[in-house]
Design goal:
alpha/beta
Length: 242
């Protein structure tokens, strides 16, 4: 089957490669030595897609240029390199951690990469400041709405008149931490959302399912296990083939 999208996932989620390869070309993202080990290869900590641009920290690009250049070549996106200083300790690890929803973006603006902020501005996407910085991790952007367990994300969304379905905290694993988040446990491609694990094992699984199906979004659980946060799935459309 000719694949239409690339699914970029953490190398720590490699066991999901086979399940995703039924529909997608799969790219395993190597770790970024600037980040804390448990999240060092999470896409939502390393890459930020804004419209037709893909933002990447310059040092990470230099260490993984062949992989990133291949993504850029195949998707025809514009590469945007960020020179913001990044460190392992929060909030200096969140430069790329931005949640996009329609014509809005959510992040802890002070620590968002300046190149990402410029790209958002150039593309007419309004940046809404949040009180905490793991915006893309904590929330699932689904159509014209978000699903989140984070009160600051819900408040930011509501300030932009975006519907927020608030779910209970917990029921999502993140090895090395007490809990993970729904954004990091999922990824949206076209009219489907893919979960690392089984949505029905979440205590608010029905609430999440109802919020998604109301918007015509299909739900695909990639395994019969508890949901696990691997930094989400970044889906990129393939526009050039070699």
């Amino acid at each position: 089957m000719r694949k239409k999208y690339i699914a970029v996932i953490s190398e720590s989620a490699a066991r999901y490669k086979t399940a995703l390869e039924r529909e997608f070309d799969v790219v395993l993202l190597p770790a970024d030595r600037k980040l804390s080990q448990p999240v060092a290869s999470h896409p939502d900590m390393i890459l930020c897609r804004v419209g037709e641009t893909l933002a990447v920290p310059r040092e990470y690009y230099c260490n993984n240029s062949e992989l990133i250049d291949d993504l850029i070549d195949r998707t025809c996106l514009t590469l945007l390199l960020s020179d913001d200083v990044r460190e392992e300790v929060y909030p200096h690890d969140i430069a790329m951690n931005v949640l996009l929803c329609g014509k809005f973006a959510f992040a802890l603006a002070e620590y968002t990469a300046k190149e990402v902020k410029s790209s958002l501005n150039e593309q007419g996407i309004q940046l809404i400041n949040m009180k905490q910085g793991y915006a893309a991790c904590t929330s699932l952007s689904a159509g014209d709405a978000i699903i989140t367990a984070d009160p600051s994300a819900a408040a930011a969304a509501e300030s932009a008149n975006i519907d927020a379905t608030v779910i209970s905290d917990g029921d999502i694993r993140l090895p090395g931490y007490d809990t993970g988040f729904i954004g990091g446990a999922s990824g949206v491609c076209a009219d489907s959302v893919y979960f690392f694990g089984n949505l029905d094992f979440h205590s608010d699984g029905k609430k999440i399912r109802d919020a998604l199906t109301r918007r015509g979004i299909k739900i695909i659980s990639l395994s019969d296990e508890t949901l696990t946060d691997f930094g989400g799935i970044l889906f990129l459309e393939i526009k050039r083939r070699f």
